[in-house]
Amino acid sequence: MDKDKQMDRVQKIPIQDLIPFKDHPFRVVEDESMLRTTESISMFGVLTPLIARPARDGKYEIISGHRRAHAAEAVGLTEVPVIVRDMDDDVARILVVDSNLQRENILPSERAFAYKMKADAMKHQGERTDLQQDGTLGQVVPKYKRTTEAIGAETGDSYKTIQRFIRLTNLIPELLEMLDQKKISFNPAVELSYLKPEEQRNLIEAMDFTQAAPSLSQAMRLKKLSQEGGCRLDDMCEILGEVKKGDLERVAFKSEQLRKYFPKSYTPRQMSDVILKLLDQWQKKRQRDKAR
Fold this sequence. Notes:
With about 290 residues, the chain is of the alpha/beta class. The protein has helices at about 5-10, 30-45, 65-75, 90-100, 110-125, 145-155, 160-165, 175-180, 185-190, 195-210, 215-225, 235-240, 255-260, 270-290, and strands at about 10-15, 20, 50-55, 60-65, 80-85. A hairpin with a 5-residue loop joins strand 3 (about 50-55) and strand 4.
């Protein structure tokens, strides 16, 4: 039998011989969708074969089916059906992205790194757009001016939307996590991705001090300050401490109003801790006075 045909047929492979794709941008989490997958596999087994490629030491690298492999192992299966296929890194990356973008509830950070992975792979292979969903050569389609246009044509998003998602990969992990948790909105997050890593770390401290997340207009101002020569922690605290429309009941102080009461070395977090401690002492004193 021809080697390629033999590899393309469905094989039963031990789960212990399967390893995750080295650059997998998607998380395998125990959410409601995973619970449904686990229940289905428990009742009917793995109905859709995984796709993998040969790896070192007799192992197989999963290209499509990471969640199915996880669920199968969780219900006690020792082997799963797999289509083994030889493919280079670029084809593998494109297939990893395409096979996962069809899932529900993809986090913004997952989509960002997935689009970047696919765009990088397409650029590396000369912006080829003649690959089918399974990574094989298909009918040649028109070339695009931008790689992001080709991705957008497949996903239904504009190339600018694809570019904005890819831009998010410049955020530090802590801010990406806030985006995934909806503590920061998408559009402000794109603007914040232009801040230097140290500025982004300072932003987290400023958000903690002011107990506020930047609006789009505030994020754009922070970006402008960074591009004009640097965005200092005090600048961030002042901007985030502004009273937003619809948030008039929140008590806010400008940084310079508080700085005169603290040593210059104090961070916003230290200032906040001292203020809360003093307020706590004040409240206890009031309660003691009332009890007399």
